[in-house]
UniProtKB/TrEMBL annotation:
Organism superkingdom: Bacteria
Protein name per UniProt: Transketolase
A Pfam family reported for this protein in Swiss-Prot or TrEMBL: Transket_pyr
Domain (Transketolase-like pyrimidine-binding) ranges: 1-162
Organism: Dyella soli
Length: 302
């Protein structure tokens, strides 16, 4: 998603108040933005804590401050500065983390980001965006950029089938229709399920929903999804994030408060450490997040 990110930020950089800080990352992707912004493009070096504090100070002066790094370096290393300098002061800094979830595969747990939005959404005045498709990026940049609160944008890669027509961006989207129990997936993971689910007969196929903005209280689940949960009595939630602080846990609490009764199957990132490491898809399979694991969860919701 880095190319559409760069294109969208280049368009936004026409605003002279925009500043962009990177933690010495973005090579072979963000050069057009650097060339366009000139001195407003700041390489802060491998100094993420300083970078966050500088971005907060720039935002405090009324500038449109954006910060970029790979996801774990964007939130984990400078968490205290995000908490104290950005969140507690209600500053609308935009944090862009590339490679959410197991995106950096073989580089291991230090480079994975499977607890990111759970940690950040514990802070006040912060919204997380998890774009599902490359085509979502312009709308996400506009939404985050125009927001009066801090934002975390978790980038991955669009993984839908080549012949799938991507619907217009929305916080909640129904990607496939069916009469089975609904599946709700967070971010790009939703795209990995399209092919295997659309091969199912419509009578048993689940409706597939994608979520792209958190926390849930910002945008209530659509009435159609809630009706599907009531009708089937079953819901499957999938996300490339640990169970604690997860969207699945938040959604379950939301349904309980609404008086809904449903069996919930939750597919989530099972571990930081594995005996072997491989690609993102390898780790998804090890974690039970691959399409075949989804089919098993739907067949046996116990």
């Amino acid at each position: 998603m880095r190319k559409p990110l760069c294109d969208s930020l280049v368009a936004r950089s026409k605003n002279p108040n925009m500043v962009f800080l990177t933690g010495d990352l973005g090579f072979m992707a963000l050069e057009p933005l650097q060339q366009t912004m000139g001195e407003r493009f700041i390489n802060a070096g491998v100094a993420e804590q300083n970078m966050i504090s500088v971005a907060a100070a720039l935002a405090r002066q009324g500038l449109d401050a954006w910060v970029y790094s790979i996801a774990p370096f964007c939130y984990a290393r400078p968490f205290e500065q995000i908490r104290n300098d950005i969140a507690f002061h209600h500053l609308p800094v935009k944090l862009v983390g590339n490679g959410g979830g197991y995106g950096y595969g073989v580089m291991g747990p230090t480079h994975h980001a499977i607890e990111d939005y759970g940690i950040l959404l514990a802070l006040p005045n912060l919204t997380a965006y998890v774009p599902v498709f490359d085509q979502d990026i312009p709308a996400v940049i506009d939404a985050a950029g125009d927001s009066s609160t801090a934002s975390y944008i978790r980038l991955g890669r669009g993984e839908q089938p080549a012949d799938f027509e991507v619907p217009a961006y929305a916080p909640w989207r129904q990607l496939l229709k069916g009469h089975g129990a609904p599946v709700v997936a967070v971010g790009p993971l939703a795209g990995t399920y399209i092919q295997v689910l659309r091969e199912m007969p419509e009578a048993t196929r689940p409706s597939l929903w994608a979520v792209a903005e958190l926390p849930i209280h910002r945008h209530a689940p659509p009435a159609e999804l809630l009706e599907q949960i009531d009708r089937t009595g079953h819901l499957c939630v999938a996300e490339e994030h640990v169970e604690r602080g997860s969207f699945g846990a938040e959604f379950a609490l939301y349904l309980m408060k609404q008086g809904k009764q449903a069996r919930i199957s939750h597919l989530y990132a099972r571990a930081h450490h594995y005996p072997r490491y491989g690609s993102q898809n390898y780790l998804r399979k090890a974690s039970g997040l691959d399409p075949q694991s989804l089919l098993l969860a739907l067949a046996d919701p116990s």
